[in-house]
């Protein structure tokens, strides 16, 4: 009886008579790191109201209207990206491909939006440049987020492990913003006289792109052994 109870608590496969897919604690810890990337991308979006007026000559009111309108792109991009993700069927790396492609698009778009195009276009061209860069960032964020949402599902379907993936994801979601806030407060802002100007935002995006890459790569390493075609064939 004691052995059966132990099996029920610690070994769901023995309890249920089902061979569950399992991950090691190390795989789960680094595999859920892409939650940190998602939080960083969310923080990047928050600076859009600052860069519109400063980098593209767009009034604050118009910037707000544009951001509200551009968020409607989410509904379209979410559906398209999800459909593409479902149809992808490489032998290895379905999730990793989407994680890295999404990161690359979002990182390049953020550097473009907050740096490379700033001060070049104003007026109507400024609105167009701002909108295109923002949409590209949103698409990259959606691609990365779609793959990131599948990490926990692909990593393990063991009911004794799934709560741990949720806990680890939550830890990243809470801790990464603290890291980013301290980075801005104690490292970046002092170098720019505590002004949220274009150079400060450009440097912030460089830091954020680097940090998000680290979290994305960690997630790719954590899920590498399970991110194979056979895993997706067993999913409902």
Automatic annotation (TrEMBL):
It comes from Candidatus Pullilachnospira gallistercoris. This is MFS transporter. Keywords: Membrane, Transmembrane, Transmembrane helix. The chain crosses the membrane at residues 25-51, 57-85, 97-117, 123-155, 167-189, 204-224.
């Amino acid at each position: 009886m004691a052995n059966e109870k132990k099996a029920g608590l610690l070994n769901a496969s023995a309890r249920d008579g089902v061979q569950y897919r399992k991950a090691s604690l190390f795989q789960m810890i680094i595999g859920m790191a892409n939650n940190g990337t998602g939080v960083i991308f969310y923080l990047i979006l928050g600076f859009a109201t600052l860069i519109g007026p400063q980098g593209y000559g767009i009034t604050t009111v118009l910037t707000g209207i544009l951001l509200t309108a551009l968020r409607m792109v989410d509904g379209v991009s979410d559906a398209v990206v999800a459909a593409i993700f479902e149809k992808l069927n490489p032998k290895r790396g379905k999730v990793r491909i989407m994680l890295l492609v999404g990161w690359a698009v979002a990182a390049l778009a953020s550097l473009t939006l907050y740096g490379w195009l700033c001060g070049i276009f104003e007026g109507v061209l400024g609105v167009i440049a701002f909108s295109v860069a923002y949409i590209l960032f949103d698409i990259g964020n959606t691609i990365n987020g779609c793959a990131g949402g599948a990490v926990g599902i692909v990593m393990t379907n063991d009911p004794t492990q799934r709560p741990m993936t949720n806990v680890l994801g939550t830890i990243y979601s809470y801790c990464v913003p603290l890291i980013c806030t301290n980075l801005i407060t104690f490292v970046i802002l002092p170098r720019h006289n505590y002004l949220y100007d274009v150079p400060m935002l450009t440097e912030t995006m460089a830091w954020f792109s680097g940090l998000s890459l680290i979290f994305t790569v960690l997630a790719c390493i954590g899920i590498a052994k399970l991110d194979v075609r056979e895993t997706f064939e067993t999913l409902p």
